[in-house]
Amino acid sequence: MKQNVLLGISFASVLAITLLGAPSCSKNDGAASASGARSAAGKKVTITNVSYDPTRELYANYNKLFAEHWKAKTGQDVEITQSHGGSGKQALEVANGLEADVVTLALEYDVNAVQNAGLIEKGWVSEFPLASSPYTSTIVFLVRKGNPKKIYDWDDLVRKGVGVITPNPKTSGGACWNYLAAWAYGLHKFGGDEAKVKAFIKQIYANVLVLDSGARGATNSFVQNKQGDVLLAWENEAFLSIADYPDDYEIVTPSLSILAQPSVAVVDEVVDRRKTREVATEYLKYLYSEEAQRVAGKNFYRPSNKKVLEEFKDVFNLNINLVTINDFGGWDAAHEKHFSNGGLFDQIYDK
Question: How many Å is the Cα radius of gyration of the chain?
Fold first, then answer.
């Protein structure tokens, strides 16, 4: 697997990820909740997890683990229904009535959209450790085996004849991370000159062949439909493609990328109405357990538990230089500047 020489930018604090202690939930916590679970023992409970595209495999495995955990803890069977799609689109669906007990979306901004619809209480980001982000990822390049177009860094994406595949940041959380990683590289390359960065990003998107609505759709365009020369991808999505087609693809790590922090939250309005708060809260809390963290690692997400992450040191490049969303002023500022109607992305992508 081909890796690049990294730029000398230090973001060591990003990599110093330490799992915090179990959260102290303020929402209907305590003995009444526990007794409710015991009284429900033997009656199957069903919850719905509305998630984004590349988590299908992760949650297919985690749901089995959680069902065993919940059965052992309460004596109750639990069934988890899954919904997947572009993260922004999924958030809009929940806001418009798609019933979700929990959301596990690609970025904090999408969960805030559900909060703004009146379905999630303020303060959700502090309900679970690490800003309610139980695992992380980053953005890498997936290229054809042997890297025939010699694509090693963001500069190579603007070359004539290089076909780029990436989803649409208007509907896909992964696409937002892709765009921001490229923007951060441009800021470094051009010494913060945003006019030059904008022109650079415009060149990249001029080479984009198709904007799928979600990350999995983009992967299918590249892997199954053989479109383009490089896929801008979640790290886990790239690894899954190599697992399926080990002789056809390889991963290139750019010199600078971004710490992608998917967010999770209980949908308060739904769980209070359906009386599923305890199981929904435990479903997200248990994501931080060592067992669940290993499931995340085996599905190529970076565990937030430092001990478990160390077990996967031969899988992930832990020395990659990463910016964070805080370098963009947080998600509200980043979205307003780059992804709002009339924002920089609309100005750049004029097809």
Answer: 20
Is residue 211 within 8 Å of residue 345, measured between CB atoms? no
Yes or no: say if 258 and 138 are a contact pair by the CB < 8 Å rule: yes
**% of the chain beyond a pLDDT of 70:** 88
How far, rounded to the nearest angstrom, does the alpha carbon of residue 18 sit from its chain's CA centroid? 19
CA quadruple 69, 73, 77, 82: dihedral, nearest 10: -40
Quick one: pLDDT at residue 351? 59
Task: Report whether 163 contacts 209 (CB < 8 A).
Answer: yes
The length of the chain is 351
Instruction: List the structure tokens of 214.
Output: 């979600």
Distance CA 42, CA 304 (A): 33
Q: The tokens of 185 are what?
A: 């590289």
| Predicted local distance difference test score (pLDDT) of residue 41 | 56
Q: Residue 327: what residue type?
A: D
Local confidence band at 168 (pLDDT 50, 70, 90 cut-offs): very high
What number is the average pLDDT over the span 326-332?
97
pLDDT computed for residue 42 by the predictor: 60
Pairing mode of beta strands 257-258, 322-323:
parallel
* Integer angstrom CA distances of residue 244 from 85, 148, 151, 224, 298: 21, 20, 22, 11, 14
Instruction: Specify the DSSP class assigned to residue 101.
Output: S
| Residue owning tokens 């709002």 | 340
Entry pTM: 0.85
| Residue of 108, 96, 97, 56 lying closest to 80 (CA atoms) | 56
Q: Is the pLDDT of residue 111 over 50?
A: yes
User: Could you tell me if 259 and 139 are in contact, meaning their C-beta atoms sit under 8 angstroms apart?
Assistant: no
Chain centroid, CA 259 distance in Å? 10
Q: Quick one: which of 311, 312, 324 has its CA closest to 239? A: 312
Map residue 7 onto helix, strand or coil: coil
Strands 135-136 and 208-210: unpaired
DSSP 160: T
